[in-house]
C-alpha cells in the first residue's frame, strides 16, 4: 500500500518533476540514512582454470595442494564486494588423478581456497563441465555445497535442477536472479541423469518466465560463448545479448574466449521510460596456464546497483573493470608461484612486492594493449587503492 501511495505522488508531478523529486528523496535518504540497504556491489571474475603447470606449482607432496598464493592479491577485492561471482572452468571429481588440459580435474582443496579468498558464487556450466563425467559433475556440486559456495549451471538430475534453478540470491535486501549457460561441452555426451545448462533460446526464455515469477530485482546471465582468443565479440554473442536483454536480463557476463572483450551499455526505450543494461562480452581468464597472446590478462568486473527511492526498482549505478595479470615466479621458499595480480596496484611506487624488470615489461605490454582496446567502449577502469590490501569481512 505504501508503494502505491508513493507512485501516485510521483505520477501527479509536472513533466520533469519526477527527476527533481527523486533527487530530493535520494538526498534525504543519503543524509538521514536509509532504513534498508539501498546499494549492492558485485564483482565478477572470468575463467578459473587449473592447467598442469598450476597443479604442479600448488602441489606440496602426498597429493596435498596449496592454492592460496593464487588468489592472495585479489582476495581483498573479492572480500570488499557484497557478492563475488566467478566461472569455475574445471571439475572437482573428488579423487586423483588430477590433471589439466584437456580434461580438467582438480582437488577439493581448491573449493576451500576459493571460499577463503572471497568467492560467494561460482557458475559451473562451461565446455569443461563434463571433463570428469558423472563424478566430475556430481562431486563438483557437492564439494561447493559443503564449502558454502552457491553454485549453478550444472545439476545432478532434473529434480535437482527444478529445486535449484533458476537461482535467486538474497543479499542486502536485493533479490538477484542468476542464470548460467554454455554453448556446449567438449565431450557432448553428458552422462544421464546429469544436466549441464546449454544455450537454447527457447529453454532460456522458459527459465526467464519462471525467474520473473520469483520477482527478482536484478537478473544476471553468465554466458559461456564466443570465439577463443578474439578481442571482439562475434555476431552470435550480440544477438544472444539482445535476446536476453529484451527478455528482462539486466546484466550479461561472458566467458570462454580466454581474453578480455568489450564492455558495452544496452538501452531499450519502453512506455515507462528508458531501460539500461550492461554486457561484458568476456572477462578473459581469471587464472590459467595458457601462454597465448593476451591470455595472461583478464578483468574483474565491478558493478553497483542502487534501489530507486521512489519506484524501489534496482538501477545500474556504476560499473568498472579492474585488469588482472597472471604472474609466474618463485616464492621465498623457492616454490613455483602463480598469482593473480591487480595491475594498477603493482604499477604504484609501493606495490605489495617488486616485479623483476622482465616481468614488469610483460605485464605492461599486455596491459597497454588491452587498455587501448577497452577504452573505446562504455566502461572505465578502477585503479586499486592500497587501502584495498586491508582485509575486510563480509557481513
What key attributes describe this structure?
nine-stranded mixed beta sheet, 2 domains, 12 helices, about 30% helix, Purple Acid Phosphatase, chain A, domain 2, about 30% strand
Would you write up a description of this structure?
It is a single chain. With 395 residues, this protein is α/β, with parallel strands linked by helices. The chain folds into two domains: 31 residues, no CATH class; 345 residues, Purple Acid Phosphatase, chain A, domain 2. The chain is built from twelve helices and 19 strands. The strands form four sheets. Strands 1, 4, 5, 6, 15, 16, 17, 18 and 19 form a nine-stranded mixed sheet that branches. The chain has a six-stranded mixed sheet with strand order 8-9-11-12-14-13, covered by helices on one side. A two-stranded antiparallel sheet has the order 2-3. A hairpin with a 6-residue loop joins strand 16 and strand 17. The N terminus is likely disordered.
Brief synopsis:
This protein has about 400 residues and is of the alpha/beta class.
pLDDT < 50 runs, ≥5 residues: 1-36
- Count of helical stretches: 12
The pLDDT mean sits at 89
Content of β-strand: 25-35%
Query: Percent range for helical residues?
Result: 25-40%
Structural class: alpha/beta
Amino acid at each position: 500500500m505504501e508503494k502505491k501511495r508513493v507512485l501516485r505522488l510521483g505520477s501527479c508531478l509536472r513533466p520533469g518533476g519526477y527527476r527533481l523529486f527523486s533527487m530530493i528523496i535520494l538526498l534525504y535518504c543519503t543524509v538521514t540514512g536509509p532504513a534498508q540497504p539501498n546499494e549492492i556491489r558485485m564483482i565478477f571474475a572470468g575463467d578459473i582454470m587449473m592447467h598442469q603447470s598450476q597443479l604442479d606449482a600448488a602441489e606440496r607432496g602426498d597429493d596435498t595442494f596449496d592454492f592460496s598464493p593464487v588468489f592472495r592479491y585479489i582476495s581483498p577485492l573479492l572480500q570488499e564486494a557484497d557478492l563475488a561471482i566467478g566461472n569455475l572452468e574445471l571439475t572437482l571429481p573428488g579423487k586423483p588423478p588430477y590433471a589439466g588440459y584437456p580434461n580438467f580435474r582438480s582437488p577439493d582443496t581448491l573449493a576451500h581456497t576459493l571460499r577463503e579468498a572471497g568467492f560467494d558464487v561460482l557458475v559451473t556450466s562451461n565446455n569443461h563441465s563434463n571433463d570428469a563425467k558423472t563424478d566430475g559433475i556430481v562431486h563438483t556440486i557437492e564439494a561447493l555445497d559443503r564449502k558454502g559456495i552457491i553454485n549453478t549451471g550444472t545439476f545432478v538430475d532434473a529434480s535437482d535442477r527444478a529445486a535449484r534453478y533458476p537461482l535467486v540470491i538474497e543479499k542486502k535486501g536485493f533479490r538477484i536472479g542468476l542464470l548460467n549457460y554454455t554453448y556446449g561441452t567438449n565431450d557432448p555426451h553428458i552422462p544421464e541423469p546429469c544436466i549441464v545448462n546449454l544455450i537454447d533460446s527457447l529453454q532460456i526464455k522458459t527459465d526467464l518466465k519462471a525467474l520473473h515469477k520469483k520477482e527478482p530485482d536484478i537478473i544476471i546471465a553468465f554466458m559461456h560463448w564466443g570465439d577463443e582468443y578474439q578481442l571482439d565479440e562475434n555476431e552470435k554473442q550480440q544477438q544472444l545479448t539482445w535476446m536476453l536483454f529484451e527478455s528482462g536480463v539486466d546484466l550479461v557476463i561472458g566467458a570462454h574466449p580466454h581474453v578480455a572483450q568489450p564492455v558495452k551499455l544496452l538501452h531499450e526505450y519502453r512506455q515507462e521510460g528508458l531501460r539500461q543494461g550492461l554486457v561484458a562480452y568476456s572477462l578473459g581468464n581469471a587464472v590459467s596456464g595458457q601462454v597465448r597472446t593476451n591470455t595472461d590478462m583478464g578483468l574483474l568486473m565491478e558493478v553497483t546497483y542502487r534501489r530507486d527511492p521512489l519506484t524501489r526498482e534496482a538501477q545500474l549505478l556504476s560499473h568498472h573493470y579492474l585488469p588482472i595479470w597472471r604472474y609466474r615466479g618463485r616464492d621465498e621458499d623457492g616454490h613455483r608461484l602463480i598469482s593473480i595480480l591487480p595491475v594498477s596496484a603493482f604499477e604504484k611506487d609501493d606495490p605489495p612486492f617488486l616485479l623483476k624488470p622482465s616481468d614488469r615489461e610483460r605485464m605492461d605490454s599486455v596491459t597497454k594493449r588491452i587498455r587501448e582496446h577497452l577504452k573505446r567502449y562504455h566502461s572505465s577502469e578502477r585503479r586499486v587503492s592500497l587501502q584495498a590490501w586491508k582485509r575486510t569481512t563480509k557481513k
